[in-house]
Amino acid sequence: MTAVPMKWRIMTEADLPSVLAMADTVHPDFPEDEVVFANRLALDPNGCAVLEAQDGIKGYLVSHPWQFREPPSLNSLLTMPAAPSTFYIHDLALLPETRRSGAATVAVDMMAARARLMQLPNMTLVAVNNSVHFWQRHDFTIMRDSELDQKLQSYGDNARFMVRDLTQKRPLVKRKQGRNR
């Protein structure tokens, strides 16, 4: 089987119907309106991307600067904070056939670089759908306390607030590369 070439590109308004359809498929227990995705795109256009393949969009990333320890409620509209203190990953979703392709790592690394350029000390997210182990592989750690647990209620009982410190250098992982012949 030959791998289908895919690459991340900045999301546009024209991508929103495809993104919403994918969100409904990948996250059926966490529905959000199209206006929420449009809001996040307007909030930080460079924090939103789609994974494009020859036959269509295979994934998306929605992220933006935000306030530390203040995860937004599901399906809510936001305005940019005056002094953001974290880079928040709202959603990273891949269709099943693109998982384990390395695309998620590329997306997380892109946003870590963006957050560092913005001089934000960390990235945060709410892990759902039993994704804690995935995020731990990307250097996120769980942060729990009663105040945060209260803020996560709209995400369900298994939701976890997670943080990745960007002030420490992450060791480079040597990836195997195929040999050219």
TrEMBL record:
Organism this protein belongs to? Tardiphaga robiniae
| Residue ranges occupied by any N-acetyltransferase domain in the UniProt entry | 6-167
Keyword set includes 4Fe-4S: no
InterPro entries, from UniProt? Acyl_CoA_acyltransferase (IPR016181), GNAT_dom (IPR000182)
Which Pfam families does UniProt cross-reference here? Acetyltransf_1 (PF00583)
Keywords, comma-separated and alphabetical = Transferase
Q: Output this protein's name.
A: GNAT family N-acetyltransferase
Asked if the record carries the keyword Transferase, the reply is: yes
| PROSITE patterns the UniProt entry points to | GNAT
> Which Gene Ontology terms cover its molecular function?
acyltransferase activity, transferring groups other than amino-acyl groups
